[in-house]
Amino acid sequence: MPIRPEQLEARLAHGLAALYTLHGDEPLLAMEAADAIRRAAQRAGFEERRVFTVSGAHFDWSSVVGAAQETSLFAARQIIEIRIPSGKPGKDGAQALQRYVDSPSADVLTLVQLPRLDFQQSRSAWFGALDAAGVTVRLDPVERHALPAWLAQRLARNGQRVADGEAGRRTLAFLADRVEGNLLAAHQELAKLALLYPGGELAFEQVEAAVLNVARYDIPKLLDAVWSGQPARALRMLGGLEAEGESAVYAHWSLAEDVRALARARAALDEGRPLPLALETARVWGAKGRLFERLLPQLSAAQLARWLDVAAICDGIVKGLVHPDWPAGAWPALRRFVLMLLPPAPGRGGAGDGAAPHVLALEA
Protein backbone atom coordinates (compact mmCIF):
# COMPACT_ATOMS: atom_id res chain seq x y z
CA MET A 1 0.00 0.00 0.00
CA PRO A 2 1.63 3.31 -1.05
CA ILE A 3 1.75 6.20 1.42
CA ARG A 4 3.48 9.58 1.45
CA PRO A 5 6.57 10.13 3.65
CA GLU A 6 4.71 12.53 5.94
CA GLN A 7 2.11 9.81 6.64
CA LEU A 8 4.66 7.26 7.86
CA GLU A 9 4.91 8.31 11.52
CA ALA A 10 1.11 8.24 11.98
CA ARG A 11 0.92 4.87 10.25
CA LEU A 12 3.62 3.43 12.51
CA ALA A 13 1.80 4.74 15.59
CA HIS A 14 -1.26 2.66 14.65
CA GLY A 15 0.70 -0.57 14.38
CA LEU A 16 3.43 -2.28 12.40
CA ALA A 17 3.17 -3.96 9.01
CA ALA A 18 5.24 -7.03 8.24
CA LEU A 19 6.94 -5.34 5.28
CA TYR A 20 8.05 -1.81 4.42
CA THR A 21 9.47 -0.81 1.04
CA LEU A 22 11.27 2.52 0.62
CA HIS A 23 12.20 3.73 -2.85
CA GLY A 24 13.69 7.01 -3.98
CA ASP A 25 16.94 8.93 -4.38
CA GLU A 26 16.56 11.50 -1.58
CA PRO A 27 19.14 10.42 1.05
CA LEU A 28 17.76 12.45 3.97
CA LEU A 29 14.18 11.23 3.54
CA ALA A 30 15.34 7.63 3.05
CA MET A 31 17.47 7.77 6.19
CA GLU A 32 14.69 9.35 8.28
CA ALA A 33 12.04 6.90 7.06
CA ALA A 34 14.25 3.88 7.75
CA ASP A 35 15.15 5.20 11.22
CA ALA A 36 11.48 5.76 12.06
CA ILE A 37 10.64 2.18 11.07
CA ARG A 38 13.55 0.77 13.09
CA ARG A 39 12.56 2.76 16.19
CA ALA A 40 8.97 1.60 15.99
CA ALA A 41 10.10 -2.00 15.47
CA GLN A 42 12.44 -1.86 18.45
CA ARG A 43 9.66 -0.52 20.67
CA ALA A 44 7.57 -3.49 19.54
CA GLY A 45 10.25 -6.00 20.57
CA PHE A 46 12.16 -6.51 17.32
CA GLU A 47 15.58 -6.48 18.95
CA GLU A 48 17.84 -8.19 16.42
CA ARG A 49 18.69 -6.65 13.04
CA ARG A 50 20.24 -8.28 9.99
CA VAL A 51 21.21 -6.41 6.82
CA PHE A 52 21.63 -7.90 3.33
CA THR A 53 22.98 -5.80 0.45
CA VAL A 54 22.22 -7.18 -2.99
CA SER A 55 25.28 -6.61 -5.18
CA GLY A 56 25.59 -8.26 -8.55
CA ALA A 57 23.76 -11.10 -10.22
CA HIS A 58 25.29 -13.79 -8.01
CA PHE A 59 23.79 -12.71 -4.69
CA ASP A 60 22.72 -15.67 -2.56
CA TRP A 61 19.01 -15.09 -1.97
CA SER A 62 18.75 -18.29 0.03
CA SER A 63 20.63 -16.52 2.85
CA VAL A 64 17.79 -13.99 3.14
CA VAL A 65 15.12 -16.68 3.19
CA GLY A 66 17.15 -18.71 5.69
CA ALA A 67 17.60 -15.72 8.01
CA ALA A 68 13.85 -15.10 8.05
CA GLN A 69 13.25 -18.70 9.09
CA GLU A 70 15.92 -18.85 11.79
CA THR A 71 15.09 -18.64 15.49
CA SER A 72 17.54 -16.38 17.29
CA LEU A 73 19.03 -17.38 20.65
CA PHE A 74 19.04 -13.74 21.76
CA ALA A 75 15.85 -12.21 20.38
CA ALA A 76 12.47 -13.65 19.55
CA ARG A 77 11.79 -11.07 16.83
CA GLN A 78 14.11 -9.59 14.21
CA ILE A 79 14.34 -6.91 11.55
CA ILE A 80 15.63 -8.01 8.16
CA GLU A 81 16.79 -5.24 5.83
CA ILE A 82 17.22 -5.93 2.13
CA ARG A 83 19.09 -3.20 0.29
CA ILE A 84 19.12 -3.25 -3.52
CA PRO A 85 21.23 -0.21 -4.56
CA SER A 86 20.79 -0.87 -8.28
CA GLY A 87 17.01 -1.30 -8.05
CA LYS A 88 17.43 -4.50 -10.10
CA PRO A 89 17.21 -7.76 -8.12
CA GLY A 90 17.68 -9.84 -11.27
CA LYS A 91 15.57 -12.75 -12.42
CA ASP A 92 16.43 -14.97 -9.44
CA GLY A 93 15.99 -12.09 -7.01
CA ALA A 94 12.61 -11.14 -8.47
CA GLN A 95 11.36 -14.68 -7.97
CA ALA A 96 12.89 -14.88 -4.49
CA LEU A 97 11.22 -11.63 -3.40
CA GLN A 98 7.83 -12.82 -4.58
CA ARG A 99 8.23 -16.12 -2.69
CA TYR A 100 9.53 -14.25 0.35
CA VAL A 101 6.47 -12.00 0.72
CA ASP A 102 4.09 -14.91 0.14
CA SER A 103 5.03 -16.46 3.50
CA PRO A 104 5.50 -13.69 6.08
CA SER A 105 6.47 -14.47 9.66
CA ALA A 106 4.96 -12.67 12.65
CA ASP A 107 8.44 -12.59 14.21
CA VAL A 108 10.12 -10.87 11.26
CA LEU A 109 9.76 -7.27 10.09
CA THR A 110 11.27 -6.73 6.63
CA LEU A 111 12.56 -3.41 5.33
CA VAL A 112 13.40 -3.24 1.61
CA GLN A 113 15.38 -0.19 0.44
CA LEU A 114 15.53 0.76 -3.24
CA PRO A 115 16.67 3.75 -5.30
CA ARG A 116 14.31 5.69 -7.55
CA LEU A 117 12.62 3.22 -9.87
CA ASP A 118 12.01 3.76 -13.55
CA PHE A 119 8.64 3.08 -15.17
CA GLN A 120 9.46 -0.53 -16.03
CA GLN A 121 10.76 -1.36 -12.55
CA SER A 122 7.73 0.21 -10.85
CA ARG A 123 5.44 -1.98 -13.00
CA SER A 124 7.39 -5.20 -12.42
CA ALA A 125 5.83 -8.25 -10.78
CA TRP A 126 8.36 -8.29 -7.94
CA PHE A 127 7.71 -4.65 -6.99
CA GLY A 128 3.98 -5.21 -7.27
CA ALA A 129 4.33 -8.11 -4.83
CA LEU A 130 6.21 -5.90 -2.35
CA ASP A 131 3.64 -3.14 -2.67
CA ALA A 132 0.71 -5.51 -2.14
CA ALA A 133 2.29 -7.24 0.86
CA GLY A 134 3.09 -4.21 2.97
CA VAL A 135 3.57 -0.44 3.11
CA THR A 136 5.40 1.37 0.30
CA VAL A 137 6.90 4.85 0.71
CA ARG A 138 8.09 6.81 -2.31
CA LEU A 139 10.80 9.28 -1.35
CA ASP A 140 10.90 11.99 -3.98
CA PRO A 141 13.08 15.10 -3.75
CA VAL A 142 11.32 18.19 -2.45
CA GLU A 143 10.82 20.46 -5.47
CA ARG A 144 11.64 24.16 -5.28
CA HIS A 145 8.01 25.32 -5.15
CA ALA A 146 7.36 23.06 -2.12
CA LEU A 147 10.65 23.75 -0.34
CA PRO A 148 9.60 26.83 1.70
CA ALA A 149 6.68 24.95 3.26
CA TRP A 150 8.95 21.96 3.97
CA LEU A 151 11.48 24.25 5.66
CA ALA A 152 8.74 25.90 7.74
CA GLN A 153 7.61 22.49 8.96
CA ARG A 154 11.16 21.54 9.89
CA LEU A 155 11.68 24.83 11.73
CA ALA A 156 8.49 24.16 13.70
CA ARG A 157 9.94 20.82 14.85
CA ASN A 158 12.79 22.81 16.41
CA GLY A 159 10.38 25.26 18.05
CA GLN A 160 11.28 28.01 15.59
CA ARG A 161 9.31 29.96 13.01
CA VAL A 162 9.62 32.89 10.63
CA ALA A 163 7.64 36.11 10.72
CA ASP A 164 4.12 36.23 9.33
CA GLY A 165 3.36 37.68 5.94
CA GLU A 166 5.80 38.88 3.31
CA ALA A 167 8.77 39.05 5.70
CA GLY A 168 8.43 35.36 6.52
CA ARG A 169 8.00 34.40 2.88
CA ARG A 170 11.16 36.31 2.05
CA THR A 171 13.11 34.48 4.77
CA LEU A 172 11.90 31.06 3.61
CA ALA A 173 12.61 31.91 -0.04
CA PHE A 174 16.15 32.99 0.87
CA LEU A 175 16.71 29.79 2.81
CA ALA A 176 15.23 27.67 0.01
CA ASP A 177 17.52 29.29 -2.56
CA ARG A 178 20.54 28.41 -0.44
CA VAL A 179 19.72 24.72 0.12
CA GLU A 180 17.77 23.74 -3.01
CA GLY A 181 18.56 20.23 -4.23
CA ASN A 182 20.48 19.29 -1.07
CA LEU A 183 18.14 18.24 1.73
CA LEU A 184 20.97 16.81 3.82
CA ALA A 185 22.59 20.23 3.86
CA ALA A 186 19.19 21.81 4.56
CA HIS A 187 18.86 19.55 7.61
CA GLN A 188 22.31 20.63 8.81
CA GLU A 189 21.54 24.32 8.33
CA LEU A 190 18.29 24.00 10.29
CA ALA A 191 20.14 22.19 13.06
CA LYS A 192 22.65 25.06 13.11
CA LEU A 193 19.83 27.59 13.44
CA ALA A 194 18.42 25.59 16.36
CA LEU A 195 21.80 25.73 18.10
CA LEU A 196 22.47 29.42 17.42
CA TYR A 197 19.09 30.87 18.30
CA PRO A 198 16.46 30.09 20.94
CA GLY A 199 12.98 28.91 20.07
CA GLY A 200 10.60 31.45 18.67
CA GLU A 201 10.63 33.78 15.69
CA LEU A 202 13.71 34.01 13.47
CA ALA A 203 14.54 37.32 11.81
CA PHE A 204 15.74 37.39 8.20
CA GLU A 205 19.07 38.84 9.36
CA GLN A 206 19.64 35.88 11.68
CA VAL A 207 19.00 33.37 8.91
CA GLU A 208 21.13 35.32 6.43
CA ALA A 209 24.05 35.46 8.86
CA ALA A 210 23.93 31.75 9.70
CA VAL A 211 23.09 29.91 6.49
CA LEU A 212 25.68 29.00 3.89
CA ASN A 213 25.01 28.58 0.19
CA VAL A 214 24.91 24.79 -0.10
CA ALA A 215 22.43 24.41 -2.95
CA ARG A 216 22.99 21.63 -5.46
CA TYR A 217 21.59 21.92 -8.95
CA ASP A 218 21.16 19.64 -11.92
CA ILE A 219 20.23 20.04 -15.57
CA PRO A 220 16.53 19.04 -15.18
CA LYS A 221 16.10 21.74 -12.52
CA LEU A 222 17.74 24.26 -14.83
CA LEU A 223 15.30 23.37 -17.61
CA ASP A 224 12.38 23.68 -15.21
CA ALA A 225 13.54 27.17 -14.20
CA VAL A 226 13.93 28.25 -17.83
CA TRP A 227 10.54 27.05 -19.02
CA SER A 228 8.84 28.32 -15.85
CA GLY A 229 10.14 31.83 -16.63
CA GLN A 230 12.42 32.25 -13.59
CA PRO A 231 15.48 34.22 -14.78
CA ALA A 232 17.15 34.76 -11.38
CA ARG A 233 16.83 31.09 -10.47
CA ALA A 234 18.02 29.94 -13.91
CA LEU A 235 21.11 32.14 -13.77
CA ARG A 236 21.87 31.05 -10.21
CA MET A 237 21.67 27.43 -11.34
CA LEU A 238 23.98 28.04 -14.28
CA GLY A 239 26.52 29.51 -11.89
CA GLY A 240 26.17 26.54 -9.58
CA LEU A 241 26.50 24.02 -12.41
CA GLU A 242 29.62 25.76 -13.68
CA ALA A 243 31.15 25.78 -10.17
CA GLU A 244 30.37 22.09 -9.72
CA GLY A 245 32.16 21.18 -12.95
CA GLU A 246 29.10 20.22 -14.99
CA SER A 247 29.67 19.79 -18.71
CA ALA A 248 28.73 22.92 -20.66
CA VAL A 249 28.24 20.73 -23.74
CA TYR A 250 25.65 18.62 -21.90
CA ALA A 251 23.88 21.70 -20.54
CA HIS A 252 23.64 23.17 -24.03
CA TRP A 253 22.50 19.88 -25.57
CA SER A 254 19.68 19.60 -23.00
CA LEU A 255 18.48 23.13 -23.69
CA ALA A 256 18.71 22.67 -27.46
CA GLU A 257 16.82 19.35 -27.25
CA ASP A 258 13.94 21.13 -25.55
CA VAL A 259 13.92 23.81 -28.24
CA ARG A 260 13.83 21.11 -30.93
CA ALA A 261 10.95 19.40 -29.11
CA LEU A 262 9.04 22.69 -28.97
CA ALA A 263 9.64 23.20 -32.67
CA ARG A 264 8.32 19.71 -33.49
CA ALA A 265 5.25 20.31 -31.34
CA ARG A 266 4.64 23.73 -32.93
CA ALA A 267 4.85 22.15 -36.40
CA ALA A 268 2.30 19.51 -35.38
CA LEU A 269 0.01 22.23 -34.02
CA ASP A 270 0.29 24.16 -37.28
CA GLU A 271 -0.72 21.00 -39.13
CA GLY A 272 -3.98 21.03 -37.21
CA ARG A 273 -3.26 18.48 -34.49
CA PRO A 274 -4.66 19.17 -31.01
CA LEU A 275 -2.19 20.30 -28.35
CA PRO A 276 -2.01 16.97 -26.44
CA LEU A 277 -1.33 15.06 -29.66
CA ALA A 278 1.24 17.66 -30.76
CA LEU A 279 3.16 17.18 -27.51
CA GLU A 280 2.94 13.41 -27.85
CA THR A 281 4.31 13.71 -31.40
CA ALA A 282 7.25 15.68 -29.96
CA ARG A 283 7.74 12.96 -27.31
CA VAL A 284 7.10 15.32 -24.41
CA TRP A 285 5.25 14.00 -21.35
CA GLY A 286 4.88 14.45 -17.61
CA ALA A 287 5.88 17.65 -15.82
CA LYS A 288 7.69 19.02 -18.86
CA GLY A 289 4.60 18.34 -20.96
CA ARG A 290 2.54 20.48 -18.58
CA LEU A 291 5.07 23.31 -18.83
CA PHE A 292 5.15 23.12 -22.62
CA GLU A 293 1.35 22.96 -22.74
CA ARG A 294 1.21 26.44 -21.21
CA LEU A 295 4.16 27.81 -23.18
CA LEU A 296 3.61 26.45 -26.69
CA PRO A 297 0.53 28.53 -27.66
CA GLN A 298 2.60 31.68 -27.03
CA LEU A 299 5.37 30.63 -29.43
CA SER A 300 5.32 31.04 -33.18
CA ALA A 301 7.15 28.90 -35.71
CA ALA A 302 9.27 31.96 -36.60
CA GLN A 303 10.33 32.47 -32.96
CA LEU A 304 11.28 28.82 -32.61
CA ALA A 305 13.26 28.97 -35.87
CA ARG A 306 15.23 31.90 -34.40
CA TRP A 307 15.83 29.93 -31.21
CA LEU A 308 17.17 27.03 -33.27
CA ASP A 309 19.57 29.43 -35.01
CA VAL A 310 20.66 30.76 -31.61
CA ALA A 311 21.16 27.19 -30.37
CA ALA A 312 23.44 26.51 -33.34
CA ILE A 313 25.54 29.61 -32.60
CA CYS A 314 25.79 28.71 -28.90
CA ASP A 315 26.74 25.14 -29.82
CA GLY A 316 29.76 26.40 -31.73
CA ILE A 317 30.88 28.67 -28.87
CA VAL A 318 30.49 25.89 -26.31
CA LYS A 319 32.74 23.75 -28.50
CA GLY A 320 35.42 26.42 -28.81
CA LEU A 321 34.41 28.70 -31.69
CA VAL A 322 34.16 32.49 -31.48
CA HIS A 323 31.23 34.64 -32.62
CA PRO A 324 31.61 38.42 -32.98
CA ASP A 325 28.20 39.20 -31.50
CA TRP A 326 28.36 36.78 -28.59
CA PRO A 327 30.35 36.70 -25.34
CA ALA A 328 33.43 34.51 -25.37
CA GLY A 329 33.42 31.31 -23.34
CA ALA A 330 30.97 28.46 -22.93
CA TRP A 331 29.22 29.54 -19.73
CA PRO A 332 28.75 33.24 -20.63
CA ALA A 333 27.27 32.06 -23.94
CA LEU A 334 24.98 29.66 -22.10
CA ARG A 335 23.80 32.48 -19.84
CA ARG A 336 22.84 34.53 -22.88
CA PHE A 337 21.15 31.54 -24.50
CA VAL A 338 19.12 30.87 -21.35
CA LEU A 339 17.94 34.48 -21.11
CA MET A 340 16.85 34.40 -24.74
CA LEU A 341 14.80 31.27 -24.07
CA LEU A 342 12.86 32.69 -21.14
CA PRO A 343 9.12 32.68 -21.88
CA PRO A 344 7.60 36.08 -22.62
CA ALA A 345 6.35 37.88 -19.54
CA PRO A 346 3.00 39.71 -19.62
CA GLY A 347 3.39 43.13 -21.15
CA ARG A 348 6.86 42.38 -22.52
CA GLY A 349 5.83 42.15 -26.12
CA GLY A 350 5.24 39.03 -28.17
CA ALA A 351 7.09 35.74 -28.17
CA GLY A 352 8.75 36.64 -31.43
CA ASP A 353 10.76 39.59 -30.10
CA GLY A 354 14.02 37.65 -29.78
CA ALA A 355 16.39 38.65 -27.00
CA ALA A 356 14.89 40.89 -24.37
CA PRO A 357 16.65 44.21 -23.65
CA HIS A 358 17.97 42.97 -20.30
CA VAL A 359 19.86 40.19 -22.11
CA LEU A 360 22.09 42.67 -23.91
CA ALA A 361 22.51 44.70 -20.74
CA LEU A 362 23.68 41.68 -18.79
CA GLU A 363 26.12 40.60 -21.47
CA ALA A 364 27.45 44.07 -22.29
Structural write-up:
With 364 residues, this protein is an alpha/beta fold. It has three domains: 2-138, P-loop containing nucleotide triphosphate hydrolases (Rossmann fold, 3-Layer(aba) Sandwich), CATH 3.40.50; 144-210, Orthogonal Bundle (Helicase, Ruva Protein, domain 3), CATH 1.10.8; 219-363, Zinc Finger, Delta Prime, domain 3 (Up-down Bundle), CATH 1.20.272. 56% of the residues lie in helices and 11% in strands. It contains 18 helices and eight strands. A six-stranded parallel sheet has the order 1-6-2-5-4-3, with helices on both faces. β3, α3 and β4 (77-83) form a beta-alpha-beta unit. α11 runs antiparallel to α12, α16 packs antiparallel against α17 and α17 (330-341) packs antiparallel against α18. It is globular. The chain starts with a strand and ends with a helix. Mean pLDDT is 87; it is low at 345-364.
Span between N and C termini?
57 Å
Taken in chain order, the helices and strands follow as EHEHEHEHEHHEHEHHEHHHHHHHHH
**How much beta, percentage-wise?**
5-15%
Spatially, the strands of the biggest sheet line up as 1-6-2-5-4-3
Name given to the CATH architecture of the largest domain: Up-down Bundle
User: What class, by secondary structure content?
Assistant: alpha/beta
Domain tally: 3
Given the C-alpha coordinates, what overall shape results? globular
Helix content: 55-70%
Helix count, DSSP H or I runs of 4 or more residues = 18
Global Rg: 25 Å
Reading off the top of the CATH hierarchy, the class of the largest domain is best stated as Mainly Alpha
